[in-house]
# Entry
Amino acid sequence: MRVLACLEEKELGYEFIPVNLRTGESKKEPFLSLNPFGQVPVLEDGDLKLFESRAITKYIAYTYAKNGTPLVCQDPKKMAMECVWMEVEAQRYENAAAKLTWELCIKPNKGMATDDAIVEEYEAKLATVLDVYEDRLANSKYLAGDCFTLADFHHLPTLNYLMGTKIKALFDSRIHVNTWCADILARPAWKKVFAMKDNK
# Structure
């Protein structure tokens, strides 16, 4: 969803080729020649083949910088700030958010029991990250500054899942984080991709 939403933000045409994960299609050739880890997504752009969603979105944002929504900063200092917050998302936020998404969203859908001790542990870790976000967002509309960038964009998949769980309270209780969440989740590109998911 992260890659599709990036393509939508950049107003780029693309061909979406579904991969059947239930039958193990991603764990066999020819898919393994695209991603040796056997995971989606994969992007093919001419002779370039990329995997890992954040790497793909960075490539799209830089290569097609003049299309659609600018998702990366061109000014070196602003770019540095964007890189800082992309790292925070990948190293701090995602660690807790992905674990909570697994426990509260994915496992119940697979008929597996949620581990309440893990939820409690990672809820506390996410709260610490969101306290830092609250301070940052008190002084800027978005994490990297006044413009929506990949630093904000990369949060969308797990954020979307967590809004349907009790973890939503962590976001709602922080006024600036809450405003930021509402803003980025309402982006037309994200809503379009999320609607595509529901229609599959």
User: Anything to note?
Assistant: The first helix runs from residue 2 to 9. The chain is about 55% helix and 5% strand. The chain has a mean pLDDT of 95. The CA atoms of residues 14 and 43 lie 10 Å apart.
